[in-house]
Write a structure and sequence with these properties.
There is one protein chain. By secondary structure, the protein is mostly helical. It has one domain: Amino acid/polyamine transporter I (Up-down Bundle), CATH 1.20.1740. It has 16 helices and two strands. Helix 3 crosses helix 12, helix 6 runs antiparallel to helix 13 and helix 10 packs across helix 15. It is globular, with a radius of gyration of 23 Å. The two termini are 46 Å apart.
Amino acid sequence: MLANISSFSLMTFNRQDNEQYIYETSHVIGEENIQLSGFDLHHPVFLSSVILILVFVLGTLIFPDSARVAFEASKAWSINTFDWLFMIGINLILMVCLFIIVSPFGKIRLGGTETRPDFSTLSWFAMLFSAGMGIGLMFFSVAEPVAYYTQWYGSPFNIQKDDPGAAAAAMGATMFHWGFHAWSVYAIVGLSLAFFAFNCQLPLTLRSCLFPLFGEKVWKAPGNIIDTVAVVATIFGLATSLGLGAKQAAAGLHFLTGIENTIVLQIIIIFVVTAIATFSVFRGLSRGVRILSNINMSLALILLIFLIITTGTSVVINDLGTTISGYIEHIVPLSNWIGREDEKFYHGWTIFYWAWWISWSPFVGMFIARISKGRTVREFLLGVLIVPTLLTLLWMSVFGGRGISQVKNNIGELSAGMSDTSLALFQMLENVPLDQITSVLAIILVLVFFVTSSDSGSLVIDTITAGGKTDAPVVQRIFWAITQGIIASVLLYGGGENALGALQSAAITVGLPFTVVLLLITLSLVIGLNKERKNVFMNTNLKSEVKV
């Protein structure tokens, strides 16, 4: 089944820096593509993806309740039966990332020794953070810690809110879900894609990451299936996020102005987001996504700094200490899957998140890969693992700490119990100075974060359906940006939250088979990095001998 690794020979052509490529293949990027009405399509993946998406959307619209029940059942079966696989898989992936950072592999540069980054470090951080988790932090930064603290839907280790360590446990569990473990999934996929595309000149698609294990078979049906599942999971995840984001933005508008939160209002919001995302996609990576990501981070920092000032530095430092201590104390127990008694929390939150991150990993990983050419492997992993986790740590401490404090001190609506996760952020902001201004800023941030997720997702889907080409026609990228908005709008209008719930459950279910694929990609990456290290070492010695 597995190809003979030793049979792969060094390629006979060279990079611009005269280092040989480490794998030989007869496949040419885009060789199976067809040109149709201005599109440049890898037709097996494109057609399969479109058909599956149409079947799902039509089936969900015709049978919304049945579809939700069916996909909820499949999601529950995946999470409850294979919780051990999700937990072992992500623990292992994190350990491999940490090993690569301290190993000689860390010196390898993505794209070759003479390649330099396309984007500044600040723009790089802004883009990877915005695409990876920016919108999630807006939605869950208050809702999740408060939910754990009040046992809204289970709590870590069944800790009661009256227990002395309840706040630390709530904040620690929140960071566990949004910290190193989560980003390690994106990091391993992003690094694999970047390495095999930029160092081995293979197409920028998921199948390329498995070339060391399966050889030329990755260009055939198995590879088509992997790429198709990646496209479907990405489009489902993005459409679900558009729907949820519209719901949160509409809830915020209702909370502030009294405008009725209706399906029509949510669809209007989706239309606006899609229109801006389409324009951004049209402008491309440097002139569109990069600029919006920088705007995102600037607005987010303004809101964060304002909350720090109004909360008080000493309080923020105390909340930050609570989060750090809770994270350190609980990271190992929360990583365990044996003998857990907090099953409601463990399955309903932790395993749900692991499946969700894994199903999103093709999208976020590929986007991070596209913007990371020229960075060393060590720089890549430190940047993707450490920096977002530190920013998340600060963000969650400020927003989540403020939310828990209001519950503790019986301040505002949060203290009466969380009724709607989409309202938690605005309920917290209602009790800070200039609440109208901060709430408006929060709504703008929600929308702009969704725009960056949408346009970066469109670039990713376009690359996969173009057979790994990164210069596919603009009309193709626009097609996928509009498709996301149409799917979210149609499902909202035709099936309401049941339809979106079915879509989310379908995306989560994809996380199960992708866990196995992810572990194979991790093994493949280690094999590839080892061959690259030996190849660079050999070329360095040859150059030294020539000079002598």
